[in-house]
C-alpha cells in the first residue's frame, strides 16, 4: 500500500520561516568565515607556515559555496549542509586541544547552527516552491 502524500504547509506559514532561516544561515556563514580569518590572522600558532596559504585552504570551500548562499538558492544551502561538516569536525578536533579550545567550541557551535538553519531553509524553500507551482 502506497503512502499518502502529506499536505504542504500554507504559504503564510512558510514565508516567515523561509526568510528567517535564510537570514540566520547568512549571518552564521559570514560569522564562520570571520572566525576562521580572525583566528588565523591573530591567534593561530602556525609553526612557520604562511598565514595566507592556511587561510586560503580553510576558506576555499566557503568561497565556493558563497554564490549559492548569497543568491538564496536552496541547492546552495543543501550543499552547505554537506560541506559544513568539515568545519564541524575541525571544531571538535580543535576543542580537544587546550590552546585552541575557545576557537574549537565557537567553530563547532557556529557550524552546527549553520547546518541546522541551512537544512531548514532547504526544506522550507522547496516546499514553498512546490506550493507556488500549484502542487
Automatic annotation (TrEMBL):
Q: Which domain of life is it from?
A: Bacteria
Q: Does the keyword Cytoplasm apply?
A: no
- Pfam family for this entry, one: DUF2069
Protein name stated in the entry: DUF2069 domain-containing protein
State which residue ranges cross the membrane.
20-39, 51-71, 78-96, 102-121
Signal peptide span: none
Alphabetical UniProt keywords? Membrane, Transmembrane, Transmembrane helix
Keyword hit for Disulfide bond: no
Entries under InterPro entries matching the protein:
DUF2069_membrane
Amino acid at each position: 500500500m502506497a503512502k499518502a502524500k502529506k499536505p504542504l504547509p500554507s504559504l503564510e506559514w512558510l514565508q516567515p520561516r523561509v526568510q528567517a532561516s535564510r537570514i540566520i544561515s547568512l549571518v552564521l556563514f559570514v560569522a564562520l568565515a570571520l572566525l576562521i580569518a580572525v583566528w588565523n590572522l591573530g591567534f593561530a600558532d602556525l609553526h612557520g607556515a604562511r598565514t595566507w596559504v592556511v587561510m586560503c585552504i580553510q576558506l576555499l570551500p566557503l568561497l565556493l559555496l558563497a554564490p549559492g548562499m548569497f543568491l538564496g538558492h536552496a541547492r546552495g544551502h543543501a550543499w552547505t549542509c554537506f560541506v559544513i561538516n568539515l568545519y564541524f569536525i575541525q571544531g571538535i578536533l580543535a576543542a580537544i586541544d587546550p590552546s585552541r579550545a575557545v576557537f574549537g567550541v565557537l567553530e563547532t557551535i557556529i557550524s552546527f547552527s549553520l547546518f541546522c538553519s541551512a537544512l531548514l531553509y532547504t526544506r522550507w524553500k522547496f516546499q514553498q516552491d512546490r506550493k507556488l507551482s500549484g502542487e
